[in-house]
């Protein structure tokens, strides 16, 4: 069993202490060996000079010479002996320069600094703090949530056991509380009863304990936890969790929902109230070759085109923008409106082309189930034999998946999996290096193929896009977005890694401006894609921003969001306290 997120920093610190202790023993061992060797050589050289000294005298001379004391009561008379004395002296100086700093720093300075850091790391939050989010543990999900909370000025407090890690995060400006995760006093000190949500992203067993403990400190606060195994969901629910997030299942479904297919039909990726946000490929529809200005009057439904993307990049919504086979439309509308869009543009003459899924882990299997439920045939390529059952049929018996065992980096294996006739490839392994390799490999084999890749670390997202991915999704962003929405904060829909749809209050300074205002995009990088009324209704025909209260729907990355809030909102605090489920 792997280490949990909370256990990992502690284990790493223990390993560091062991390595430090081992280094100290090695240094002492080297010193003892030098004393023994030099004492033996001293005896031999003194015997050569016809001088007899005891072993105690030999050790005494060696230590006083290495330490540079050199009383001068015992000396050599030959050149060879004097050269040996110089060698002992110089090596002793070097040894002392290594020995003293090591022990002073490791056993005096470092513990003193750790005690100072521990003393100033908070054990409780201010009594006036309320409507905050408590994040138990520190992993990619909680760090992404905390960074988003900082941008929106929503208080988020990390609860950690590891004092050194807590001190580092505290020095970085994060709000931190140190204490045992299995003590109700820790959560009382963190103001759990006044919090809007408690989030725990530890192992399934640790999350169970956290949920029980939080319920002792605050019976009514909503608790959201992550689960790595489906069998843990019921146990965590019994422990008191209000929301259990299966990250592997959610990421797999989200990756499957980004498969655009080969018929041009829409794929729902989220919603704002009753308004559904969807993606649709232009490929295979009559929109290919038209400009945006020519296509908009053809829409027979009230569907609104929020944005246009190519290869994961947003394009400016200008009337002369040409729609190509690689164009992806981001749509918004009611369910009936999107159904009419499908009826107008979806190609009924062809069936959905199959999808190849690289990796048969939790994410790959979840993506396969989601595609099969939609009637999309798919094939899983898995290196480990027997990890995935060979085939199954969904409830209606209309779709199934196949399994090809072998290396996904082998062109022959991919050919057996049907890469040549596939409409998309999902790259689902946990290893980012492998994902970059597979993305680039498949892109070279099929340049026109849609590639949806998984990222474990945010720093590799840009690399995956450069390797040829059309869309990138990660645990951190998927988990942080789900938990953010669960906390009742400003609702978000993830379009792709680095691009989110989010709501902000309408700034008075933007009243009467065009929804497609280029100045806002140039100043902040955010695209204003729609206007919502106070009741959350999307304004389909609104071309200018009303002065009445309401919200704007923006599309952009975290840097663009930060610039927009600083420029137009003065970093206002958003969100309402949610009720318990």
Automatic annotation (TrEMBL):
The chain crosses the membrane at residues 25-46, 58-76, 83-105. GO terms for cellular component: plasma membrane. Residues 352-473 form the RCK N-terminal domain. GO terms for molecular function: monoatomic cation transmembrane transporter activity. Keywords: Membrane, Transmembrane, Transmembrane helix. Coiled coil: none annotated. Its main location: membrane. Pfam families: Ion_trans_2, TrkA_C, TrkA_N. SUPFAM superfamilies: NAD(P)-binding Rossmann-fold domains, TrkA C-terminal domain-like, Voltage-gated potassium channels. It comes from the Bacteria. It is a multi-pass membrane protein. It is found in: Cell membrane. PANTHER family: POTASSIUM CHANNEL PROTEIN 2-RELATED-RELATED, POTASSIUM CHANNEL PROTEIN YUGO-RELATED. This is Potassium transporter.
């Amino acid at each position: 069993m792997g280490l949990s997120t909370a256990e990992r920093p502690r284990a790493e610190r223990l390993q560091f202490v062991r390595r430090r202790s081992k280094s100290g023993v090695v240094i002492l061992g080297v010193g003892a060996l030098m004393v023994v060797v030099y004492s033996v050589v001293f005896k031999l050289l003194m015997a050569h000079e016809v001088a007899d000294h005891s072993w105690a005298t030999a050790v005494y001379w060696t230590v006083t010479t290495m330490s540079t004391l050199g009383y001068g009561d015992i000396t050599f008379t030959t050149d060879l002996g004097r050269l040996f004395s110089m060698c002992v002296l110089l090596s002793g100086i070097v040894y002392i320069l290594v020995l003293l700093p090591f022990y002073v720093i490791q056993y005096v300075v470092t513990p003193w600094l750790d005690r100072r850091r521990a003393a100033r790391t908070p054990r409780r939050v201010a009594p006036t703090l309320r409507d905050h989010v408590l994040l138990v543990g520190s992993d990619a999900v909680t760090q992404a949530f905390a960074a988003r909370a900082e941008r929106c000025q929503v208080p988020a407090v990390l609860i950690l056991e590891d004092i050194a890690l807590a001190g580092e995060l505290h020095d970085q400006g994060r709000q931190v509380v140190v204490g045992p995760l299995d003590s109700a006093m820790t959560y009382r000190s963190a103001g759990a009863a006044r919090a809007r949500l408690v989030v725990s992203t530890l192992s399934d067993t640790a999350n169970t304990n956290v949920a029980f403990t939080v319920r002792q400190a605050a019976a009514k606060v909503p608790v959201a936890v992550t689960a790595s195994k489906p069998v843990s969901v019921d146990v965590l629910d019994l422990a008191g969790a209000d929301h259990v997030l299966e990250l592997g299942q959610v990421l797999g479904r989200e990756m499957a929902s980004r498969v655009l297919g080969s018929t041009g039909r829409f794929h729902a990726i989220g919603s704002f109230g009753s308004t559904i946000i969807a993606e649709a490929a232009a490929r295979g529809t009559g929109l290919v070759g038209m400009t945006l200005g020519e296509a908009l009057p053809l829409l027979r439904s009230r569907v609104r085109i929020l944005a246009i993307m190519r290869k994961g990049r947003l394009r400016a919504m200008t009337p002369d923008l040409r729609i190509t086979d690689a164009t992806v439309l981001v749509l918004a509308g009611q369910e009936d409106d999107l159904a009419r869009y499908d009826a107008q543009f979806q190609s009924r003459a062809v069936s959905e082309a199959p999808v190849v899924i690289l990796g048969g882990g939790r994410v790959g299997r979840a993506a396969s189930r989601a595609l099969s439920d939609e009637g999309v045939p798919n094939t899983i390529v898995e290196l480990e034999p027997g990890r995935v059952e060979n085939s199954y049929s969904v409830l209606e018996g209309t779709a199934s998946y196949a399994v090809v065992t072998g290396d996904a980096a082998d062109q022959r294996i991919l050919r057996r999996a049907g890469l040549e006739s596939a409409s998309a490839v999902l790259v689902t392994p946990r290893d980012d290096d492998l994902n970059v390799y597979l993305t680039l490999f498949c892109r070279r084999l099929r340049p026109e193929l849609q590639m949806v890749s998984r990222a474990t670390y945010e720093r590799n997202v840009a690399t995956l896009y450069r390797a040829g991915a059309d869309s990138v999704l990660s645990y951190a962003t998927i988990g942080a977005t789900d938990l953010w929405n669960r906390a009742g904060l400003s609702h978000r829909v993830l379009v792709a890694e680095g691009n989110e749809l989010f709501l902000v209050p309408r700034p008075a300074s933007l009243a009467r401006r065009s929804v497609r205002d280029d100045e806002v995009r140039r100043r902040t990088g955010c695209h204003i894609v729609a206007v919502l009324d106070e009741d959350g209704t999307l304004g389909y025909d609104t071309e200018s921003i009303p002065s009445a209260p309401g919200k704007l729907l923006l599309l952009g990355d975290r840097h663009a969001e930060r610039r927009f809030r600083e420029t137009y909102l003065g970093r206002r605090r958003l969100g309402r306290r949610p009720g318990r489920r």
